[in-house]
Write a structure and sequence with these properties.
The protein has 18 helices and 14 strands. The chain is α/β, with parallel strands linked by helices. Bound molecules: nicotinamide-adenine-dinucleotide (NAD).
């Protein structure tokens, strides 16, 4: 089947590449000409393990192409996925400018039936706005459908997530739209397994809000437990293991740390809180989830201040800038809180990240970064771990100690076993391990 995907970011490019790998003919569109030029040259505009090979394979097979023109994409395919960004607006609500823009351009250019699919994470009821937009700008006398197909992939494991989904949720208003989407996903589900769930559009939109908010709640829950552990003399890792073996709870997303970040959880929880407020039904539980996430960072900052006493002029080595390992994405990453806060206290910062350094420096060009962990820690008074990259997990502790001015680690990710690090001669502060 022919498919267009508008927006070639973390979601759109992965989705388009995986659809083409499943045998469909795909056009990926982006209005950022630099991204499309890179893709034409065979370069990836984002880092995602395994993506480059899939893109290359399908471009060579003639199943995947790129364009900057939504008009071209509208002419090319009957089904058009919208995977543009929906970043938080000035008041925290999701900014729908890009989604609307694509809806308008598709409407102006379609001459026969088209199915517009919301792949971006959007507030419930967006499909109604999108439908009104299409009707306003439609020039031809033709039918169309708007559907919701929320995306659940995770950066860092986006390819296995997209090729082997637990479930595919589609919200549709017509049998035609549902059948088209089922046909698109048939080869993927036949190979990878997973359930195809057909529901109404608002339920599909809400499924995404509810899923991400639930996962964020699990993280905030264990972070709240971690603070009790510190006060009560328990070990949150052991508590989480004991909880997680209960299949009703499950072990995932029970990792205490510096708090959740990334382009999804903070924005999606916020959007759900606002939706509930707008509907006149305050979601107080989620407001608490947000509060715990914010105070968790402050709690880690307190550990740094208590350890250093005077922060000014202290050398702090930051290990990890990405919001999690295996991605170059720094949106809402904890590093974006710690770097300016520590800079304001006049600490001397040096950071290391194997992939996200470039994206971070687009925001904070003044941060000194180095390509080697030991060079980063040279003469440091404290190492702050913000991303549990494998290179950090596997660091040679004796060598690390030998290059530092003071062997102190504040570990925002519980990367190490406390006994091992302390035996290596470090003062070690982690999360929820008294
Ligand atoms: N990143 C994730 O892990 C993830 C997971 C699930 C869902 N989502 C959701 O998917 C959506 C996309 O997220 P992302 O991380 O891929 O964003 P992104 O910023 O990486 O990519 C969005 C792309 O859309 C392009 N774009 C914007 N307006 C356009 C237009 N009018 N025409 C053509 N292209 C346009 C941008 O240039 C950009 O390349 C968001 O709603 C996000 O919440 C993201």
């Amino acid at each position: 089947m022919k498919i267009s995907v508008v927006g070639t970011g973390y979601v759109g490019l992965v989705t388009g590449a995986c659809f083409s790998d499943a045998g469909h003919e795909v056009m990926c569109i982006d209005n950022n000409p630099k991204k499309i030029e890179m893709l034409h040259r065979g370069e990836m505009p984002i880092y995602e393990p395994g993506l480059e090979e899939i893109v290359k394979r399908n471009v060579e097979a003639g199943r995947l192409k790129f364009s900057t023109s939504v008009k071209e994409g509208t002419e090319f395919a009957e089904v058009i996925f919208i995977a543009v960004g929906t970043p938080p607006g000035p008041g925290g609500e999701a900014n729908m400018t890009y989604v609307e823009q694509v809806g308008r351009e598709v409407a102006e250019n379609m001459t026969s039936y088209r199915l517009l699919v919301e792949k971006s994470t959007v507030p419930a009821k967006t499909s109604e706005h999108l439908k009104r937009t299409v009707l306003k700008y439609l020039r031809a006398d033709t039918d169309f459908d708007v559907a919701s197909n929320p995306e659940f992939l995770r950066e860092g494991t986006a390819i296995p997530d997209a090729t082997n989904p637990d479930r595919v949720v589609v919200g549709v208003e017509s049998k035609r739209a549902g059948d088209l989407l089922e046909e698109i996903y048939k080869p993927i589900l036949a190979k990878g397994g997973g359930k195809f769930l057909r529901m109404n559009v608002t339920s599909a939109e809400l499924t995404k809000h509810a899923s991400n908010s639930f996962l964020a709640m699990k993280i905030s829950f264990i972070n709240a437990v971690s603070r009790i552990c510190e006060l009560a003399g328990a070990d949150v890792e052991q508590v989480a293991q004991g909880m997680g073996l209960d299949p009703r709870i499950g072990p995932r997303f029970l990792k205490a740390g510096v708090g959740y970040g990334g382009s999804c959880f903070p924005k999606d929880v916020d959007a759900f809180v606002r939706l509930a407020d707008a509907l006149g039904n305050e979601f107080t539980l989620l407001k608490e989830v947000q509060k715990i996430n914010k105070t968790q960072r402050e709690h880690v900052m307190k550990k740094i201040k208590q350890e250093l006493w005077v922060v000014q002029d202290k050398r702090i080595a930051i290990f990890g800038l990405a919001f999690k390992p295996e991605t170059d994405d720094v949106r809402e990453a904890p590093s974006l809180y710690f770097v300016p806060e520590l800079q304001a206290m006049k600490a001397k910062l040096r950071a290391w990240d194997p992939i996200a350094e470039g994206k971070f420096k687009e925001i904070h060009p003044d941060l000194e970064t180095v390509p080697d962990l030991y060079e980063c820690a040279k003469d440091a008074d404290l190492v702050l771990i913000l991303t549990e990259w494998d290179a950090v997990k596997n660091i040679d502790l004796a060598k690390l100690k030998s290059v530092m001015a003071c062997p102190v680690i504040v570990d925002g990710r519980n990367t190490f076993d406390p006994a091992t690090v302390r035996a290596a001669g470090f003062t070690y502060h982690s999360i929820g391990r008294a």
